[in-house]
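Sample entry copied in:
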Amino acid sequence: MDTALWDKVVNFNIDGVVSEYCFTTRLENENYWTANFAAAAILEYKKFMYLAAVSDGMVSPSEIVDIVWHQHLVFTKSYDEFGELLGKKIQHIPSTHHKSEFSKFKLAGDRTKKLYKETFGTQPAEIWEHDTLYYPLNMEKAKFNTVKLISIGIVLFIPLFFAAYFCLYPIYITIHNPDFMLGYTSIAVAAFVSLLLYNHTKLNAMIMQWSKYAFAFTLTPLELVYLQNNEIEPVIHGVVNQLILDNRLSVEPDNNLAVINDSGISDPVLFCVLQTVSANPQMAYYKLVNILKQKPAFNKTARAMDAFQKYVSRSKQFIRLFSLNFIISGMVLTLGAIRLATGVVRDKPVTYITIAVAVCWL
């Protein structure tokens, strides 16, 4: 291994001068990648380019590495500087998937794997064996999504409600309060507690089936904050708070922000906040937050986590779990709604059952 060359390659600043929409930010934002997955992909791209530079034969990237390579080609200045550092002009030869090229690219792939193992060890599966960061989650896509299931449930609710109403009406008129309310409340509480415990068990089992190298286990604090709140504002608040604690931002007497020190910043997220504050002096904080919400430095987190949640919610495992919850909750709601209808028809007080049904609905 050419240690001197590798040190230059691994330390190459692919982002160049820090900016709001630098290479890494764009890579994450356009591909819905998490920060650590993008960092891992960039490292593997550098390893691949090193191998391409020292190899006498053709080497072949993985799908993930090729995505990084394609984007680097767009950043022409950075790519040219990287080529000069490597000391070799490396051509990007796209595959046409023609049969005549199969053996050539197969040989290149085998050569790459051999060289990689000799130089760096075993290739990380999440980058080299899969074409998407979601593959290690081992989740098969369902035919239905939650919206379709809810729509079907709403359509079926009306005929099922009337059928159940005529079946239960003779029974309901014989059960008086508070006996019915106590029984109904017990059934509702038992159902929801059971679902809560069952959901916890099934969700844990779902996570346990994810490969140990799945991106979901290396989420950054900002990504976890977004997942917890499903909003980007808490993420922005966290970054601003950290800059204040680091004495880079100050809170003025009028509660507006001011930049104290913006030197030595290499993180695009921190740079984005400091630049926005500098460009908008005396602006109210809520207005600054609205501006920051539109910035790619923060959008990338929202896009990656929204895509993650969307992927999980469309999996067979999640749809099965959602269906069970939807059916049981619907049954509990129907039992209460029939009692409510029975009371209205018989001109009985329905205040308490209305509250109970509303609570179940919420």
Remarks:
- Strands lie at 249-251, 257-259.
- The mean pLDDT is 87.
- The radius of gyration is 29 Å.
